[in-house]
Structure formats: structure tokens, C-alpha cells
Amino acid sequence: MKMIKLADTNLPAIGQGTWHMGERAGQRGAEIAALRQGLELGMTLIDTAEMYADGGAEDVVGEAIAGQREQVFLTSKVLPSNASRSGVIQACERSLQRLRTDMIDLYLLHWPGQHPLSETIAGFETLREQGKIKAWGVSNFDLDDMQQLPPGCATNQVLYNPESRGIEYDLLPWQQEQGMPVMAYCPLSQGGSLLQHPALRDVAKRHAVTTAQVALAWALRQDGVIAIPKASNPDHLKLNAAVADLQLSDKDFALIDKAFPPPRRKQPLDMV
Ligand SMILES: NC(=O)c1ccc[n+]([C@@H]2O[C@H](COP(=O)([O-])OP(=O)(O)OC[C@H]3O[C@@H](n4cnc5c(N)ncnc54)[C@H](OP(=O)(O)O)[C@@H]3O)[C@@H](O)[C@H]2O)c1
Predict the structure, then answer these.
(1) Is the CB of 212 under 6 A from ligand 1?
(2) Which fold has domain 10-187+225-232?
(3) pLDDT tens readout for residues 43-90
């Protein structure tokens, strides 16, 4: 598995997302089993957020990682509405309870909000001093937002897949220059029409893999990118972990560029 250094930790470049987990009681067992299977397959970074299922996803993660906390790199996110100096501390403490742990490895501001960044970051720094988080970062920040940040930001988690590649114009190269990894969310475009696209099908056929595996390998071709696909289906988890062994060629990338041209000018940051 390709490894990426984030917050002084060497992490596998493919992690596990959790959006929509914890929403349906009947799925809970399958979601816990999926996360545990992902850990066994080496996808030890788990991404969650207080927003997902109103804390329900964190609760699922907490149960899934019980007894193996030290093997997991845990990322969670505070809602912008909770990101005042004191609000961020209270939100983190609630997340820690749901996650059944005393430390979150990486705690992100979910998107820019109404509270001054300096307050949010002061809250993050207090949490770091208290040992409740190891590192902090942001999500859905465009380049101008990033340039406002003081030193100490470990990552920026943004939408990145062939359909949404505007970050290649400025944000991604800037983060690469800073040595700050990008966490690519929705790398499979939420399992939508991207996975049926003829260009991805062509590439997939040539390597005898699936279009989802092509999409993940495409994201990982960039230095310093960690992709966090969400998968509840056991077959999907195996396929995602196997992307570690998939090397696409320049010809493959050219085919994808033709179907999804790289940005030639600044584009507003895509979000879901
Ligand atoms: N920071 C933010 O604002 C933000 C926004 C969105 C997402 N995120 C994070 O990023 C994670 C990933 O994004 P996402 O969940 O929205 O979308 P995604 O990972 O692009 O797609 C998830 C969908 O793809 C399917 N899938 C997974 N592996 C597959 C495979 N090998 N073949 C075919 N289909 C496959 C999943 O199905 P099954 O579940 O049935 O396996 C699920 O329906 C989220 O879960 C969340 O943790 C962050």
C-alpha cells in the first residue's frame, strides 16, 4: 500500500469514509463489520464527522474500533456552527464519547463558517494541548482560505475525482509545495455515473479491474493524496484495498484527461 505522511504518521493512501453510516439501525451490524474488514485489509484511516447521522456514524465507528483503537488513525470533523473557541472543545468531547476513545488523531473544521478562524484554531490548539486531538486541519477550504491559516494545519479534505478536478489548477499544487496532504473525498463520485463512464470502462478493461479501482488509482497518482472511499459492501472493500497494486499508465491517464479535461483556469471549489 502506498503510504503518505500526515500529522507525523505514515498512513495508507486509501482510508475509509463513513458518510451515511449510522442512519439505519438494520445496517449497523454490516457497517461495523465493513469497517473492521477495512482495518484488516490495511485501510486504517477512518474518516467520520459529528454531522454524519447526527453523531450516529461516530457511534458506529466507536463500536467498530473498540479493542483496536491503537491500530486506527481516527479523523472526525466539527460542524462550523459549533466551531467557536469553546464550542469546538465541547463538540470534540461529545465526539470522543461517541467514538469511545480519549483522543482523535485528526480533527477538522468541516467547512468554513461564521466563527472567526482564529477562534476555531484556538479551540483546536487547546484540545491539542489537552491531548484530546493529535492534529487539526480543515475541509472544503479553497486556496485563498488556506492562505489565511496560521502554521499547524495538517490537511485540507476536499472533493476530488475525475468529474471534479478543479483543485489541480492551484490548490493541489500549493498543498504539495507546502508538504500538506490532500484528503480526497467522494473519490468514487458517490458511486454515480462516473463509474459507468466509457473512458473509465476502457481503462478498467485493459487492466482487468473495475472502474471504481481506476478512479481510486487515478486520485492516488498525485503526490500527497489520500483517498477515503466509503464502502459497506465486503466485495467493494476488497477491491478498494487491492488498488494498492494497480499502476495506471500515461496512456490511461491521457484517456481519462480526454474525457475529463484538467482545469485550464481557476475554478470555484466543488463541494457536496
Ligand atoms: N469533508 C466533506 O465535506 C466530505 C463530503 C463528502 C464525503 N466526505 C467523506 O468522504 C467519504 C467518501 O465519500 P462518499 O461516501 O460521499 O462517496 P464515495 O466514497 O465516492 O462513494 C461511496 C459509494 O461508492 C460505493 N463503492 C465503494 N467502493 C466501491 C467499489 N469498489 N465499487 C463500486 N462501488 C463502490 C459505495 O457502496 P457501498 O457502501 O454499498 O459499498 C457507496 O455507494 C465519505 O464517506 C466521508 O467520510 C467528506
Answers:
(1) yes
(2) TIM Barrel (3.20.20)
(3) 999 999 999 999 999 999 999 999 999 999 999 999 999 999 999 999
pLDDT exceeds cutoff 90 at 244: no
Are 169 and 141 contacting, i.e. CB atoms less than 8 angstroms apart? Answer: no
Report how far residue 207's alpha carbon sits from residue 199's, in angstroms, rounded to the nearest whole number.
13
Phi-psi region of 201 (alpha: psi -120 to 50; beta: other; left: phi over 0): alpha
pLDDT digits (tens, 9 = 90+) for 121-136: 999 999 999 999 999 9
Q: Rounded to the nearest 10 degrees, how much is the dihedral formed by the CA atoms of 245, 247, 248, 249?
A: -160
Query: Which protein residue has the closest C-alpha to ligand 1 atom 31?
Result: 236
105 sits in which H/E element:
strand 104-109
Other C-beta atoms closer than 10 Å to the C-beta of 139 total 23
Give the three-state DSSP class for 165.
Answer: coil
Mean of pLDDT over the chain: 97
Q: Is the CB of 200 under 6 A from ligand 1?
A: no
